[in-house]
């Protein structure tokens, strides 16, 4: 389910209002599913940034830079784009760029307005 341009925390709240959550990409298979979903919605031509359910705002000091999934704690899967993660101040929220060649993960300030993808309970088949 797509969400319009909002800050990371706002998109998280909007997803929960629909009984969902920001999509948690926790495996290569799930990453591929999200990539296919985004490409199907835009024909793969849009280059909009899309928030996903990973942050290090609350996980500083945990493994892999403190990145956590919004529901399960320390993240088991991260596929960073070249040059990422940024280590500048307040780049605590993760996104992917729809239509980029690799859909790899990037981080930026949480107060930027990006679109987002919500998911309902993930059962292995994927409902976004």
Summarize the structure.
The protein is of the alpha+beta class and 128 residues long.
Summing up helix and strand content along with how strands pair, one would put the structural category as alpha+beta
Q: H/E element string?
A: EHEHEEEEEE
Shape: globular
Mean of residue pLDDT values: 81
CATH architecture: Roll
Counting structural domains, the number is: 1
The CATH topology annotation reads as Mannose-Binding Protein A, Chain A
Q: Biggest β-sheet, characterized?
A: 8 strands, mixed
Beta-strand level of the residues, as a percent range? 25-35%
Give the C-alpha Rg. 13 Å
Tell me the CATH superfamily.
Answer: Mannose-Binding Protein A, subunit A
Task: Please render the helix and strand layout as text.
Layout lengths: L1 E5 L1 H10 L3 E2 L5 H15 L6 E7 L12 E2 L3 E2 L18 E5 L7 E4 L5 E6 L9
Parallel strand pairs: 3-8
Antiparallel strand pairs: 1-8, 2-8, 3-4, 3-6, 4-5, 6-7
